[in-house]
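User: Hello, beginner here. Can you help me understand these amino acid letters and fold codes? It all follows right here:
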Amino acid sequence: MKSERQFLPLFFLSFFIISSTTTTTTTATVRIRNAVVTKIPQQFREAPEFYNSPECPSIENTQNLICSIEAVHVAMTLDSTYIRGSMAAILSILQHSSCPQNTIFHFVTSASANASLLRATILASFPYLKFQVYQFDDSYVAGLISTSIRSALDCPLNYARSYLANILPTCVKKVVYLDSDLVLVDDIAKLAATPLGENKILAAPEYCNANFTSYFTPTFWSNPSLSLTFADRKACYFNTGVMVIDLDRWRKGDYTNKIEEWMELQKRMRIYELGSLPPFLLVFAGNIAPVDHRWNQHGLGGDNFRGLCRDLHPGPVSLLHWSGKGKPWARLDANRPCPLDALWAPYDLLKPPFSFDS
């Protein structure tokens, strides 16, 4: 049964250049009874500013900039755990965009997060960035989450992608959703321009050679009423870390509710093991618009257990995605990088510890 939700947008859009702060500190805090435990701060450099090429349309005079149909709208989640990855992703998007000043970011944070601190972190490194921050109330999804094979996948914010149509303003018609553990090496406008046809809700690279049955349990496949879900579809695996979504069609089709229905069933009987991905597959697999595989060279973080090094898939590359357990910043810090982590490192804005006080 669909419940009424309220999301808390922080209507903060930075159109201005703030003063000369070149680094910022992100400090994650965890309250244990009456004590506050503070993690080691992270400080980031200020990124260079990037400008539109001459052929880019101007959106600066748009009455409501956040609603601009000329802009490329990008949605990402934002938290203190993955902030380093998010900063690298933002830099890569801007650096390779032909119209970086026409890119508007929509950051979704947990309602329990320090949104002001996260916002200040983004502003200090990207003082010119056009963005808005929204708070997602974890309680709306916490009761629907079932434990998965990796605890990081159980974070409520990991499910925010299912609620973008509710969170973002209704004037935002189309959005590119991106995970925080990736970098682009191509113009995001090309991805945003993916045609969705007359009725497709989302677009993503499909991987039909993957073992689709492995994403669901024997309980699912042995139940005819459940396994027939895919009877009329050529269902293939797709990764939900890179998607182009028509939010208007999503809202009209009430797809958040469709995803929640599968999550509610999962609470009653175990039909999958892998976090927020399977409900997307149940609702959309076999009925999405195709995207070239170059736009999601995923799995670079290895599997969900050991995070071993992996090679690129054959073919050209527009987006590198460290999905899986291993993250490039963690492996670089541990002096155990995989070869492809060197492709992420140039976008890392973290200030080295020895320069914190310089």
Notes: The first strand starts at residue 8 and ends at 10. Residues 1-6, 10-40 have pLDDT under 50 and may be disordered.
